[in-house]
């Protein structure tokens, strides 16, 4: 038995998902669906179709993986596709997940399909760490750190500034915050935990106006320690990196006076962001497939899904992990 | 709204659970139930009743926490209590969980109750790590290490040997195995990962026979690197420790030739084994309560329960962890 997978979107993530799926015996690829001209897309061997032909393949697809960005594509596309397909996605705008979930829910509740949303390494795996550690530790304090690694969202935000030719933005944990989180039971804000390092290729003479606009962008750079480097197109190449890192520090205390200390530390070193995200997406496909088979239609975040549903093989020997 | 909790068994774990529950607003303690004489048990303030009176309190208890050992008590007691109560326990004999689950399931399926079993820090939290990392990482290899910390099961096993007056057994990760697990994608056996350090108070002249019997105990010491220390009663006191530690090393690889490496590391440093276990048990009580409220009767391991069910407060703002 294998899950028949559709891949919608063929950028870095779609391509990584194809490669991951080709390696696994319990998944087969029905097709890749692109908004570009299919004949111009070179896959790793899977059939490539036009996005417009997706609905003709509905009967051949158990789960459709949506390999699109969170800023515009997913909010626009997912509610429509969720009416005809079981979908999985990696929507990653933390502040907008509730609103996104509601929108997808409206589509799914009338269709009888399953949508697994916002499931990558964060939101996703690190979300699980935060929830479990906050639930299991006595008097918990939990802090998450991202990086050093490229943030696609922040990079795109810089590129939208007038006068910017190209850019890369690294999210970097603050050393003082890492130390604090490992020692003191106190939640730190996202701006206290991270600094933002930007490498920018700018049009001549636009450096000052770019700096002003960048530093005033709310939710992106305002309130952060920001480091700006204006560099050449050639230099920028060496900063295009796919690696990333995530860390969770959790502290707890018990005993009559809180004198007994507990400490948890998770560190995930990610060789390639799209590769890991694609691998997690495959696990989501397995979960969506199992949920759909049980007719449990609805929209699911990682918090709504029993862990066993992600298990790597269809045959259920999941208790060997207990 | 609060969960009305019964505590069955009042050893280290029962006492730690009472202390944890007294600190939390969403739990109230209906009573502690002991097989000792209730008047001889000094609680931290909760009412103490005879175990034989448990059934009179059935209407006042939403969830009954079973604070007993795994070797004899839980397998004997849980199937009976699960007929009348929603139960949670920390059964921790990894090899026997499936068999235990089947036994409890038979009781629960006729009673309409919920039983959450085998949920502490391992099996429990570290089981989740193993399952998620094995499901999410590409080409995963996962190794778990326990200790340095006292194993109750192994300590009890030594105490059963003829000529042993008292003992403490530490489970200690092998340094060579820790290094290997962080570098090489290869699952190590439990004997390759750990050594066993035993501190024993023996009757005069019994050291040799104790050594022979101990080293030949299957599933406990046979095949392990074992370190034996025969010491005095007085010296043993300083080895009675409640702290423990758990580590999970996971490696993954992606890319066409597996050349892209991913690495995850979890380290949990436990100030007090019973305190952390009690705190996790409280989270299990919340999950059992929610499952029961939805009439989802049955027996559950941590793999069967959606993560959101463990969330610390009854009001559902769980998505803030996403």
Strand percentage of chain A: 25-35%
Question: Based on CA inertia axes, which overall geometry of chain A fits?
Answer: globular
Percent helix of chain A: 25-40%
Ends of chain A: how far apart? Answer: 25 Å
Which oligomerization state do the chains in this entry correspond to? homodimer
The class by helix and strand makeup of chain A works out as alpha/beta
| Order of strands, widest sheet of chain A | 3-2-1-4-5-6-14
The CATH architecture of the largest domain in chain A? 3-Layer(aba) Sandwich
What Rg of chain A do the Cα atoms give?
A: 21 Å
- Number of structural units classed as domains of chain A: 2
Count of separate DSSP helical elements of chain A: 10
Which chain pair has the greatest contact?
A-B, 64 and 63 residues
Q: Secondary-structure element sequence of chain A?
A: EHEEEHEHEHEEHEHHEHEHEEHE
Mean pLDDT of chain A: 96
Q: Which homologous superfamily in CATH is the superfamily of the largest domain in chain A?
A: NAD(P)-binding Rossmann-like Domain
User: If you consult CATH, what is the topology of the largest domain in chain A?
Assistant: Rossmann fold
Uncertain parts of chain A: none
Q: CATH class of the largest domain in chain A, anyone?
A: Alpha Beta
> What's the total number of strands of chain A?
14
| Biggest sheet layout of chain A | 7 strands, parallel
């Amino acid at each position: 038995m294998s899950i028949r997978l559709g891949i919608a979107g063929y950028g870095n993530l779609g391509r990584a998902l194809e490669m991951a799926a080709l390696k696994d015996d319990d998944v087969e690829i029905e097709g890749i669906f692109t908004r570009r001209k299919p004949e111009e897309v070179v896959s790793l061997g899977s059939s490539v179709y036009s996005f417009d032909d997706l609905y003709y393949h509905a009967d051949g697809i158990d789960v459709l993986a949506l390999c699109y960005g969170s800023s515009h594509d997913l909010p626009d596309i997912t509610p429509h596709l969720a009416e005809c397909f079981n979908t999985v996605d990696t929507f990653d705008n933390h502040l907008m997940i509730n609103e996104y979930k509601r929108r997808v829910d409206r589509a799914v509740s009338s269709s009888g399909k399953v949508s697994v949303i916002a499931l990558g390494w964060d939101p996703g795996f690190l979300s699980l760490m935060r929830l479990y550690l906050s639930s299991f530790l006595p008097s918990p304090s939990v802090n998450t750190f991202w990086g050093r690694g490229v943030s696609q969202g922040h990079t795109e935000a810089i590129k939208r500034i007038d006068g910017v030719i190209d850019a890369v933005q690294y999210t970097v944990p603050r050393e003082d915050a890492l130390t604090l989180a490992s020692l003191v039971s106190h939640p730190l804000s996202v701006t206290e935990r991270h600094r933002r390092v930007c490498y920018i290729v700018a049009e001549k003479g636009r450096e000052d106006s770019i700096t002003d606009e960048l530093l005033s962008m709310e939710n992106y750079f305002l309130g952060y320690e920001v480091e700006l480097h204006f560099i050449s197109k050639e230099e920028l190449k060496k900063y295009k990196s796919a690696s990333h890192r995530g860390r969770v520090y959790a502290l707890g205390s018990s005993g009559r006076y809180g004198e007994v200390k507990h400490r948890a530390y998770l560190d995930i070193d990610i060789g390639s962001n799209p590769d890991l995200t694609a691998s997690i997406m495959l696990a989501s496909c397995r979960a969506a497939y199992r949920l759909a088979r049980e007719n449990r239609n609805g929209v699911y975040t990682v918090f709504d899904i029993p862990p066993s549903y992600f298990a790597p093989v269809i045959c259920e020997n999941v208790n060997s992990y207990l």
